[in-house]
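Quick one, tokens below:
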């Protein structure tokens, strides 16, 4: 398979190149972090950076197992530095190196070191680096393929596939880059997604999160997958599992959900009171990092397709750099409040709004918002796909995902 172009990520790396700041990339395992770094190194070569000026270490490679000691890592990198030239240092899956922040801190102090680090746990950077290197890093969050990236690649192979067919595959098999290797082979694709899920659970959740009861963890995963798009709480999860005969308390649920969010298997969307401009701390929604996990672990019903679409829209808003919240206004709910430096835009998501009653129901929460910030209704309707209804833009979700 050809390397999938992901220009937004390369552009971000290039924008921060040679600046005295640590470039940090976080993202779930196998979302493409290592590939992006490899692509960026090729770009540096095209920009006349010599191979000796680049030091690349992937801590998942046994060849670098000795460097999981921070002092050995520091000594190794220092021995490879080219004097009087900028050195580009790539440390992939850095969380596998104990006390890595000490080595990173010391390398950062050198004028000729440009540092790029990645990790598969959302806490590797805020927890450790933020404490030691406050104000000296920037972070890029990386996700599996967007629908636009996925569809563009798939269209090159299957020109006759419709956007709807591609979206069905995108939701069924997921969006991890390697999934395109299977080119629609359902059995192999499903086996890959299952194996990837097991790897993330065992390595990034159980081991790093100190999880003692894996079956309970699996039950929580299934609960969250079944309930994407529904408000929930750790108390509700605990009560649901207890009613199913599982012995668990809220504190344990808190810990396990925290580990799942930490491994970036799920993202939490807190509530936001629109009228009061207040962030709320209870009854969040949780969204999965990839719909392929949902299709193999929590088979969706026909009525769940709206929540699947909602999950996809949530992830795309995050890709576009928004902080995303669930809106609340006087008892009504707006699916998403997307914040850009404190400036909101509002999104409602549903499968179809062709029936007048459905359209009225979906529009009402947006109409109640009295500010003049952008408001959108995203559906899969192809008819009447681009309308301005009383200041609310109704558009086709697939067109929106493709940036049309």
């Amino acid at each position: 398979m050809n390397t999938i172009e992901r220009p937004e990520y390369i552009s971000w790396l290039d924008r921060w190149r040679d600046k005295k700041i640590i470039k940090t990339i976080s993202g779930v395992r196998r979302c493409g972090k290592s590939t992006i770094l490899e692509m960026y190194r090729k770009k540096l070569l095209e920009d006349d950076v010599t191979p000796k000026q680049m030091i690349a270490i992937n801590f998942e490679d046994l060849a670098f197992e000795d460097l999981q000691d921070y002092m050995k890592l520091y000594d190794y990198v220092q021995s490879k530095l080219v004097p009087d030239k900028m050195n580009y240092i790539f440390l992939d899956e850095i969380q596998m190196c104990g006390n890595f922040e000490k080595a990173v801190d010391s390398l950062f102090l050198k004028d000729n070191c440009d540092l790029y680090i990645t990790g598969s746990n959302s806490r590797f950077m805020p927890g450790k680096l933020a404490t030691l290197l406050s104000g000296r890093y920037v972070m890029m969050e990386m996700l599996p393929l967007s629908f636009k990236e996925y569809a563009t690649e798939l269209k090159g192979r299957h020109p006759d596939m419709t956007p709807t067919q591609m979206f069905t595959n995108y939701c069924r098999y997921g969006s991890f880059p390697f999934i395109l290797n299977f080119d629609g082979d359902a059995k192999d694709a499903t086996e890959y997604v299952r194996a990837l899920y097991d790897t993330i659970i065992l390595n990034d959740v159980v081991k790093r999160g100190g999880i003692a009861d894996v079956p309970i963890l699996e039950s929580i995963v299934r609960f969250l997958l079944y309930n994407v798009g529904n408000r929930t709480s750790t108390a509700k999860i605990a009560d649901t599992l207890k009613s199913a005969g599982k012995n668990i308390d809220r504190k344990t649920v808190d810990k396990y959900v925290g580990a799942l969010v930490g491994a970036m298997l799920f993202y939490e969307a807190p509530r936001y009171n629109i009228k009061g401009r207040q962030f709320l701390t209870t009854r969040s929604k949780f969204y999965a990092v990839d719909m392929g996990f949902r299709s193999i672990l929590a088979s969706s019903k026909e009525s769940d397709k709206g929540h699947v679409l909602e999950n996809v829209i949530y992830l795309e808003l995050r890709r576009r750099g928004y902080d995303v919240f669930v809106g609340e206004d006087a008892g009504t709910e707006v699916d998403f409040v997307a914040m850009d430096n404190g400036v909101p835009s509002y999104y409602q998501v549903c499968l179809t709004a062709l029936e007048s009653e459905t359209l009225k129901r979906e529009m009402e929460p947006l109409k109640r918002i009295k500010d003049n910030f952008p408001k959108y209704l995203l559906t899969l309707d192809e008819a009447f796909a681009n309308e301005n209804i009383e200041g609310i833009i109704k558009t086709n979700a697939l067109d929106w995902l493709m940036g049309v």
